[in-house]
């Protein structure tokens, strides 16, 4: 049994959306490979080959999209509705300026402070963010209102989800599709 939280040194209250950190994805693939090799040393070469193939071929589009976004849009200020995006934004070179306390409150379903709400709305109205990234699986009324506000201010929105969407997608298909959406929103927002 592999407990990813323990393996990655996570603690209660840490951001649980670990699969949005590309470094963690690679670390977990390698950990699974190493665990399989320990269980079945005779097939070590096959496990090495499978892991390498997945990292270089299976995840190629995923890694290529991350690199392309980082190369073209590094430093671009963006907003988000949830902490689900706070692991991915730095990997993409994007500057996530939404207060973390706001992201965490929405993710955990706790009350958003009036100050955080005002900051997030101001960032949209003053066009301090180029793109708003939201979790389409968690859009209560206050988040729907934020999306509407972003659209009214001509700020493109992109969606991410907590779980595979569609449910039949592979990890790499799911993540690549979302990265393409973020890339499109950035292109629309910046004209490049």
Please explain how this structure is put together.
Helix content is 56%, strand content 7%. The chain has nine helices and four strands; from the N terminus they run H-H-H-H-E-H-E-H-H-E-H-E-H. Strands 2-1-3-4 form a four-stranded parallel sheet. Helix 2 runs antiparallel to helix 3 (44-58) and helix 4 (60-73) runs parallel beside helix 9 (171-190). 26% of the residues are buried.
What's the short version?
The chain is an alpha/beta fold and 192 residues long. The chain has helices at 4-7, 22-39, 44-58, 60-73, 88-91, 100-108, 114-125, 141-152, 171-190; strands at 77-80, 95-96, 132-135, 157-160.
Structural class: alpha/beta
Major beta sheet, specifics? 4 strands, parallel
The number of helical segments is 9
- How much β-strand is present in the residues? 5-15%
Mean pLDDT: 91
SSE order, one letter for each helix or strand = HHHHEHEHHEHEH
Shape: globular
Low-confidence residue ranges:
none
The side-by-side strand order for the widest beta sheet comes to: 2-1-3-4
Could you give the distance between the termini? 45 Å
Question: Helix proportion of residues, in percent?
Answer: 55-70%
Strand tally? 4
Radius of gyration: 18 Å
Descriptive keywords:
single chain; 192 residues; alpha/beta; 4-stranded parallel beta sheet; 4 strands
Q: Which helices and strands appear, and what pairs or packs with what?
A:
Layout: H1 4-7, H2 22-39, H3 44-58, H4 60-73, E1 77-80, H5 88-91, E2 95-96, H6 100-108, H7 114-125, E3 132-135, H8 141-152, E4 157-160, H9 171-190
Parallel strand pairs: 1-2, 1-3, 3-4
